[in-house]
Amino acid sequence: MAATRTQKEIRQRAPIWLMMLLFTNLAIMTFYARDTSTNQRLLRVWMQAAASPVQSVSSKAGGAGSTLISQIVNFRKTAVENEQLKQQLSQTELELRNAQQAAEENERLKGLLNLKEQTGYERVVGRVIARDSSVWFNTITINRGSSSGIALNMPVVTSGGIVGRVVALSPWTAQVMMITDEKAAAGAIVGQLGGSSALGSVRGLGESDLIEMRYVSGLQNVQVGDTVLSTGQDAIYPPGLNVGQVVDVKPGTATQAHQIFIRPGARLDQLEEVAVLLYRPPQRPAPEQTLPNVDKVTKSER
Q1: Fewest Cβ atoms closer than 10 Å to its Cβ: which of 41, 139, 213, 216?
Q2: What are residue 128's DSSP bridge partners?
Q3: What are the tens digits of pLDDT across the range 244-261?
Q4: What is the tens place of the pLDDT at every residue in 2-29?
Q5: Which alpha helices (H) appear in the chain, and where do they start and end?
Q6: By three-state DSSP, how is residue 217 classified?
C-alpha cells in the first residue's frame, strides 16, 4: 500500500520536478548565454536594461540635488559679496564726499584769504557756529570775537560779497546782522564807482532772500544783471564791495525812483566761513561851531 502510494506520489510530482529541471536548465543556459555582437552575457544585459530607468531617475535626482545645493551655496556667496561691495561703495562715496567737501572748504578759505589783496584791509576768518532761525536766518554767530580784534559794525563778507555787519560781541564770538535783515542798510551804486550816477541805498526785505535798492533816480538806466557795489557812504562798508546783482527792476519816472531788487552776491543760505574786515571808516571832519566872519564881527564891535 505504501509502495503504491509512493509511486502515485512520484507520478503526481513528476511534472513539477520536470518543470524545475527545465527552469534550472533554462536559468543555466541564460546565465551562460552571450550576445553574439558584444560577447556579453545576456543576463547582465537584461539586468542593466531593467536597472536603467531606476539609475536614470536616481542620477537625475542626484544631479538636481547637487545643482540645488551648488546654487544655494553660490547664492549665499553672491549675497556676501554684494554686501561687501555695498559697504565698499558706501565707504568710497563717503571718502569722495569728504574729499569734495574738503576741496570746497579749501576753495572758500582761499577766497577769504585773498580778500586782503582785493580790499586792502586785514581780515579775520571765522566759522559760522549758529543761525537765528526766527526770521529767515537774518543773524548768524561766528567763532571769533573781540579777542581777535573784531569791533562793532565791522563789515562781514565772503569772496562773493557782503554778508552783513557785527552787531554784538563777546571775547570769543560775534553776532552778525545779515544784509537781508529789515534793519540792515548800506550805501550802494548800480555799476562801477566813478562811472555811474545810479546812487541809492539798499535794505533787507526780512522774510526774503532779496534786498531792495531805493532812491535811484528814474532817469538812470538800470538793467537786470547789473552789478551793485557799496559806496562807503554808510560808514560801515568800505567802497567797492560787491553787494549783488539786479534781478528785477520796476522802472521809475522823472519824479519817481526806480524800485530795484537785488540778489546778494554772497550765498547767505550756505554760509560756513566768513571774513570780518578790520575796517574802520575814516573820521569825518567835525562841523564848525561858528559861522564864517563871526570872529570879524566880534572884533569890529569891540
Answers
A1: 41
A2: 142
A3: 999 999 998 888 999 999
A4: 555 567 776 767 777 777 777 776 666 6
A5: 2-32, 42-113, 115-119, 294-301
A6: coil
Phi, psi of 185 (to 5 degrees): -155, 160
CA 238 distance to own-chain centroid: 36
Domains and CATH numbers, the chain: 2-54 (no CATH), 122-277 (2.40.10.340)
- Rounded Cα–Cα distance for residues 101 and 184 (Å): 31
C-alpha cell belonging to residue 285? 571832519
Mean pLDDT calculated for residue range 268-294:
74
What cell numbers appear for 281 in the block?
571808516
Residue 270 is classified by DSSP as G
d(CA 125, CA 111): 11
Rounded to the nearest 10°, the torsion over CA 97, 101, 104, 106 is -130
Residue 102 CB contacts under 8 Å (≥ 6 apart), including other chains: none
Give residue 49's pLDDT band: very low, low, confident or very high (50, 70, 90): low
What are the cell numbers at 240? 567797492
CB 179, CB 211: distance < 8 Å? yes
Cα(58)–Cα(61) distance, integer angstroms: 5
Cα atoms found within 13 Å of the Cα of residue 50, Cβ hemisphere only: 6
What would the DSSP string read from start to end of 144-177?
--GGGT--TT-EEEETTEEEEEEEEE-SS-EEEE
137 confidence band (pLDDT: 50, 70, 90): low
